[in-house]
Amino acid sequence: MSNGYDVIFIGAGPAGYVGAIRSAQLGMQVAVVDNFVFKDGKPALGGTCLNVGCIPSKALLDSSEQYHKVTEHLSAHGITARGVELNVEQMIARKDKVVKDLTGGIRQLFKANKIEWIHGHGKLVDNREVEVTNADGTTERYTAGSVVLAPGSCSIEIGSAPLDGDKIINSDQALDLTAVPPRLGVIGAGVIGLEMGSVWSRLGSEVVLLEAQDELLGPVDRQVVRTAQKAFKDQGLDIRLGCRVTGTEIGSGAEAAVTVNYEDKKGEQQLTVDKLIVAVGRRPNTDNLVSGDVDLLLDERGFINVDEHCRTNLPDVYAIGDVVRGPMLAHKGQEEGVMVAERIAGKAGHVNYETIPWVIYTDPEIAWVGRTEAQLKAAGVPFNIGTFPFAATGRARAMDHSTGMVKLLAHAESDRLLGAHIIGPQASELIAEAVVTMEFAGSAEDLARTMHAHPTLSEAVREAALAVGKRALHKAN
User: Fold this and answer.
1) 209 annotated binding-site participant
2) Is 454 a catalytic residue?
3) Secondary structure letter of residue 75 according to DSSP
């Protein structure tokens, strides 16, 4: 039995490692338990996000965008490129280096903040007591004043498409393909499915996405979705909605294809692909997280029940990140980690769940914060709308990235900004402007009166704010 820790975090993903760093900054003795092993067989910090999620997928999205730009778009700039070759193995190697550099950086942050990293599987076995199972099967126990559960999430598997690790794979495994599949199937056209489909479509795959829902991207503003659907179709992504996969079959031999059986409104259908990615969502990693005699309260889907400050039903036990309510987003988990660390230290930690930004890193990018037009109508909230197309901005035109728009929703009486929805170039960066405005309870007028540099993409945000009051300067109101 080891004692002396003020707090132990189970999980070293964005929620856990950020919470641990903030705890150490506040003078606490901190340990982090995590059992992630990178594909090279070495333990690694950062969890799913840094190793097989957010970071590697964005690295591949960037690489595929560079290739697509050279092969498809440079001629419009008067540039001719000949003899262009694609080296997928080098692309994967670059992705791995980006990952290793960042996870190594977290290791250095742990060292600088005197955080102890305990490699192994962590389980809560008693109030504030954690059992760690090492790689050799031996166990050790540690105690702390507080325990924070941050084990993250994993890909959902479905019985109609069992993974074999070669022909039928999950999104983690899709990050390590060493050749471009001529025909790629994706089950699920959500955030992960669209991003993975975009990577391999840009590199030359014929991509078909099968989505069970009748609408694409249900939580996203419908006007934004319509723009996105047209853009995805123009890029060659074949998105089929209302499709329920009923079974899969893998042929024999190394070059065997995968046959996907599914049903849509026309009846039974069949699709043949070379590789199939299952990207139907993620579930919380709460299996084997607590011993049987620990009465931790979970819901029917396996999420840990917490209050507004991420406290569980157990004294001095908290849960953060993908295992609790709210969106499974790294930045949401990070803020919860900071909040919990500060509350353990007796400070007033807080997370504003109304201003969590969402991003889909497709081309064009999609980003939003706050409520949609449909949500405001359903709630009976009076609002005004301001939109502005990127096609009307000089910078987007010069960049040859003019698809999309900025859409702002403001309260009809107070003018307070209630939601922002962006589809277009650098939407992931531009959404921060709306998040900051909403954090300060700002109005559309505040954005409209703020001077923006010219020419920039951010001018579209200001013009949309002006449009709320029907006074946009560079489009007809």
Assistant:
1) no
2) yes
3) G
